[in-house]
Amino acid sequence: MTGRRGTASEAPTSGAVGVDAQVSRPGSRPLAQRGILLMILSTVAFAAMLSLVKLARRELGAFEVMCWRAATSVPLALLLVWRSASAGSLRRLFRVQRKALLTARVVMGFCAMSSFYIAARGLSVADISIIHKLQPILIAVLAPWVLGAGERSSRGIWLALVAGIGGSALVLGPELSFGSGYAIAALVGTAASAGAHLAVRALGRTERASNIVLWFQLGVLGISVSVLLVRHGAVPLPPAHLVPHLCGIGVAATIGQALMTQAYAVEKASTVAAASYVAPLWGVASDLVIFRTVPEPSVWIGGTLIVAGGLLLLKATRQIQGREDEASDV
After folding, report:
1. Spacing of C-alpha 82 from chain mean position
2. How many domains are contained in the chain?
3. Is 96 left (phi over 0), alpha (psi -120 to 50) or beta?
4. Are 266 and 35 in contact (CB under 8 A)?
5. 3-state secondary structure of 214
6. Buried b / exposed e along 249-262 (16+ C-beta atoms within 10 A)
7. Is 1 inside a domain boundary?
8. Rounded to whole angstroms, how far apart are CA atoms 66 and 83?
9. What is this structure's pTM?
10. Nearby residues of 165 by Cβ (< 8 Å), 6 or more positions away
11. Mean pLDDT of all residues in the chain?
12. Tens of pLDDT, residues 238-286
């Protein structure tokens, strides 16, 4: 979320394709309003997914939930690709130029997903939603070292990092003080997610977005099945009453990713990213309505710090972009 290529950094992580016709006019007024709305709806879908994960985790292990989530998402992703791709492009879906980097993206993405699914067992939806907002700040700080000097940092980005870390300490401090593995899992998931997004940004220079998405979904399915086979000797079938939950997780994830892709296709990355900071609100709403829990005061204060850090990050990246645009006009 820190560079000039918002669609490269975010869109490839989603399952939607076929938005190229709208990419040429980002920032126009009608499309800008549509992009903001799409991103807000995307955060609603992801909050619904996380709530369903938390419900399913009462009876299932994290890898079981991931397995059935991927089993639902792969066909949906293929359907989206099929609707928007020609036969020739379908044959290219499995072609990858940078196999090592794609493998790293799959592994880091799997680590991030498994960590968040583990954390969902013991943390509230609001806690996880807030901590995940630390991810773009980590990306902004790490991008210059990983992607090169073109991804420049600034003083504002470092201040955003300090605010984000301070906010995370307030949100997860009580959990960490008791040695909660769920809190540690949430932090590990956020760091792994940042690494996965950096890999996606680098892959976006040479690979098709649909390739990255499809291989990630297949990778999650393959790794989770392998883990279950090693641990249980088979893939356990879920209880019948949880099948709707597991299908809902896959559907909500795919819808959220599709909406996010469309949002980044029609509006500037910084504007869409700002809209994504409403996500913790849906997390709080989910906790209140579904789980009957009210966030502690430290969560509100820490969440405010993290969101403030994210908005500071957006301001800093816009300033960098403005200086680059002025330089290009000279």
Report:
1. 23
2. 1
3. beta
4. yes
5. helix
6. bbbbbbbbbbbbbb
7. no
8. 26
9. 0.74
10. 134
11. 75
12. 999 999 999 999 999 888 877 877 777 676 665 666 677 777 778 888 8
